[in-house]
Amino acid sequence: CAAATLNRPADPHYGTVGRPLPGTHIEIAPDGEILIAGPQVFAGYLKDPAATAAALHEGRLRSGDLGAITDAGTLTVTGRKKDLIVTSSGKNVAPVNIESALRDTRWISEAVVYGDNHPYLVALLTLERDELARLARRLGPRRDPAGMFGHRAVREAVQAAVDDVNANFAPIEQIKRFAILDHDLTQSAGELTPTLKVKRAVVYDRYRDIFEGLYRTAAAADAATSAGTAVPTAAPGTGP
Predict the structure, then answer these.
(1) Which of 34, 43, 106, 172 is most buried, most CB within 10 Å of its CB?
(2) For 71-102, how does the pLDDT look when each residue is reduced to its tens digit (9 = 90+)?
(3) Rounded distance, CA 21 to CA 37, Å?
(4) SS3 for the chain, per residue?
(5) DSSP bridge pairs for 113
């Protein structure tokens, strides 16, 4: 498929990829995927009906992107279908916008949202080193930023940032618990692409114990609350 939409200089719609080009038809599938039909969409793979069926649905290209059409008729792209999180209640959640909003806060440098087959979302976060250093200096001259990841003041600042982000999303899209990683995600470790995008599958696999531990800690807290017993706090840098 060649170009399908355009934001015209005389009529820009910020935050969108514009209106469909003449002769192009855009629609959103029930699962949120953007489907494209028009003269620029290919007819199929030569002598490969299986691959054609995977790429096209009734002549419409399965873009692999998730999106929505605005009231103005412009298209917004909200994420990739392969990144879609399906909660245990069957709700589909696109994590990209949530992660972007978290990264836009003062404290968070990277965010990876997790929650497939779980009742709510959790996140693995890394911290902005410059902001962490400023907070360390504010707390005292002997504070070492390298040892600040599990500090109460850091967690309170990050929690406030997460709360602010949550206020802009529906309840099913909100981050209920998070863990702060005591190091950055890196390209050399295979966690980031050359363009510094997160390799979601790699991060999910490498840090699965931390992600799943957030749910186990929550379950233990609920059980302890019901029994009226105390719950031990999580280890610094691994969970709330």
Answers:
(1) 34
(2) 999 999 988 888 889 999 998 898 998 999 99
(3) 11
(4) CCCCEECECCECCCCCCCEECCCCEEEECCCCEEEEECCCCCCCCCCCHHHHHHHEECCEEEEEEEEEECCCCCEEEEEEHHHCEECCCCCEECHHHHHHHHHCCCCEEEEEEECCCCCCEEEEEEECHHHHHHHHHHHCCCCCHHHCCCCHHHHHHHHHHHHHHHCCCCHHHCEEEEEECCCCCCCCCCCECCCCCECHHHHHHHCHHHHHHHHHHHHHHHHHHHHCCCCCCCCCCCCC
(5) 123
- For residue 194, the one-letter residue type is P
Tokens of 222: 């609920």
Higher pLDDT, 225 or 86: 86
- Cα separation, 31 vs 28, in Å, equals 8
The neighbour count for residue 3, using CB atoms within 10 Å, is 11
Which residue type does 188 have?
S
Cα-to-chain-centroid distance, residue 237: 20
**Residue 78 and residue 34: Cα distance in Å, rounded?**
10
212-217-218-223 Cα dihedral, nearest 10 degrees = 130
